Amino acid sequence: EFRRVLFRSPQTNKKTLLKRMVPVMTKSNLSVIQGKAKNMKSFALGLLTSEINRNKAPKLAIFDTEQALYHSALSYWRINQLSENNNKYFNIEKFNHELRLEFIEQFTIRERPDLIFIDNIRDLLLTINSFEEAFNLIQRIKQLKSMQTIRLLKM
Length: 155
Description:
single chain; alpha/beta
C-alpha cells in the first residue's frame, strides 16, 4: 500500500509533500515514530489507527507502557470513536520491563494481530544506555515480527 508522506523541509521548516509515493508500514517491517517528549506522538498514534481502520479492519494491538490508566482510557476511547473498530488496547505501565515484553510476546503469539503499536518502547528496557540490553530487545522484537509476519510500530 502506498501513501503520500508529509515531512518538514530542513531549509524552510515547512511541511512538504513528497513528490513520489513511498511504502509505509509494510508487512514484516519495523517502523518508528520518533519525537521529543510531550510532542503528541500518542495522539498521532490515535489518528494513524483510525486511518488504518477506515481503509480496512485489521486486528490491531496497542501496548501503552507509560501513560496512567486514566489517560490510556482516554486514548482508547478516542481511537475507538475515530475508527469504530474494537481494537485491543493494553495499559502495561504497572509491570516491570521484563513482564511488559513477555506480555507483548505472549499476546502476539496467541492472538496474531496484523499490526502492533508499542507506545514508548524505551520502557521495555531497564537501562536506556545499555547497548547490550537494547540489542537484545531489538532482536526479540525482530524474532517476534518474523514469526508472525506482523507490522510493528515503535514510538
